[in-house]
Amino acid sequence: MKRYDLVVVGSGAGLVVLETALAQGLSCALVERSKFGGTCLTRGCIPSKMLVFPADLIRETQQSDRIGLKYPSPEVDWSKISDRMWQKINYSRQIQDGMKSVNNLDVYVGTGRFTGTHAMEVLDQDGKHFAEFQAVRFVLAPGARTFIPPIKGIEEADCLTTESFFGEKYPKTPWKSLVIVGGGAIGAEFAHIFSAFGTKVTVVEMKSRILATEEEEISLFVQEQYKSLGIEVMTHHQAISVDISSEGKVLVLEDSFSGERRSIQADEILIASGLKSNADMLQLEKAGVAVDARGWIETNDYLETSASHIFAIGDVNGLYQFRHKANYEAEILVKNLFGSKRVAANYNSVPWAVFTWPQVAHVGLTEREAQNRGFKVWVGRNHYSDVAAGSAMGYDSESFDNGFVKIVVNEDKKILGAHIVGPHAAILVQPFVYLMNSGYQCRPEESDHRNLFKRKTNVLLQDACRQMGTIKPVLDSMVIHPSLSELTAWALAGMLWENHRS
């Protein structure tokens, strides 16, 4: 039986670790059951943004009248939009072909599963065994897939998922009507995309609001914007059953309060109710790898599983399902596997954005989360209409879509969270990610009292460390005027003024 130094399962962020191992001269194998490149490239963040951007432009033309511009309704070339998207997805073929020509690397296309602590077999698409090998170490990065809720008739109705949408069920033209089950990030992005292209969209959510991980006032703001866009949002409703009619698919819903049931008919139904770990395909029990109650692989701070020679990164460990988080973990694991010193992963400043309309961005704690953790909280808010750049974009205090920023700090001015809803939210939140992350760069081992010079240096370091992660660098900096950067900067200034007055 062939034996490798390292086997990587999954060709997304796992490739970062694999490339480093190959550069070290190690013998390696890669196992991939689906398209090469991972979720982000083949059915996630990249192809979806190829649809989001034209949808954004449609929305901008629809709302341009407030600054004195009128456009005719855009003519949508769905074929061209789709071709651009598929060009990105099909890059996976180049990745696969490239991997097969790499020295010291064997590529197995199929489903890998453990047969022992150091042994794995690979099954082809028909579930037949075709390879088996051993390895000194394994890196598990197989990702996750759409969670299919227990809805009666859902399998027979062949409802849409992101896997099938970016695959065999991609539409030749936008549907006339679409029901989305789930109001999280995926559901919100698809609601924006297809409503912009003229589809009648209904979002069904079991919880009290969509985008439930966001600040409550932000998710409610987005819900109100959806109404103006013609997107119907049905919160507190649970999908009970689905059936096929002569005119499409019929979803039966139940009101969580009244118990009343109603039916919605649409051309298609998209299931976007969360993710399920792909760990269940790996036969982890045969390798001694533990999972939590929901099936996510448990890892420690160094991304080790309960088996010391097996590591897990990305969606499969359930610690945030974002490609940038997976890439971060891959870089951490590279240091831990091949570096001179182990490094712990830090998730205190994980950012994300929801590319719906309006755009939403988030890093850190919400106000409620901070209060629940016992922090004395200060909050700064600022609306787009409150800065010159926002006024130039057509926002005023009466604008129904006047987005805002909300920044949460503790009494020591440490940034706990930043939350934005409105144009360019993903760009505006990024500086706060840097500021928050800088607060974790000072560590006790930096102290050295062996001589006077180092004592003086350490005093300076201690002073610098006190400022790291706080709002002070923002308050002490010049901010380009007029720019949307003022939106976040002046929210902090306003917060200080309000707290000094009280």
Could you give a quick summary of the protein structure above?
This protein is of the alpha/beta class. Helices cover 33% and strands 24% of the residues.
For this entry, give a set of tags:
502 residues; alpha/beta; FAD/NAD(P)-binding domain; Enolase-like, domain 1; 3 domains; seven-stranded mixed beta sheet
In percent, how helical is the residue content? 25-40%
Q: How many domains?
A: 3
The computed structural class is alpha/beta
The radius of gyration is 25 Å
Report how far the terminal alpha carbons are from each other. Answer: 73 Å
Tally of DSSP helical segments: 16
State the low-pLDDT regions, or none.
Answer: 444-457
Number of strands: 21
| Share of β-strand residues | 15-25%
What features would you describe in this structure?
This protein has 502 residues and is α/β, with parallel strands linked by helices. It has three domains: 2-145 and 276-338, FAD/NAD(P)-binding domain (3-Layer(bba) Sandwich); 154-273, FAD/NAD(P)-binding domain (3-Layer(bba) Sandwich), CATH 3.50.50; 358-501, Enolase-like, domain 1. Helices cover 33% and strands 24% of the residues. It has 16 helices and 21 strands. Strands 1, 2, 3, 4, 5, 6 and 16 form a seven-stranded mixed sheet that branches. A hairpin with a 2-residue loop joins strand 11 and strand 12 (248-255). The termini are far apart.
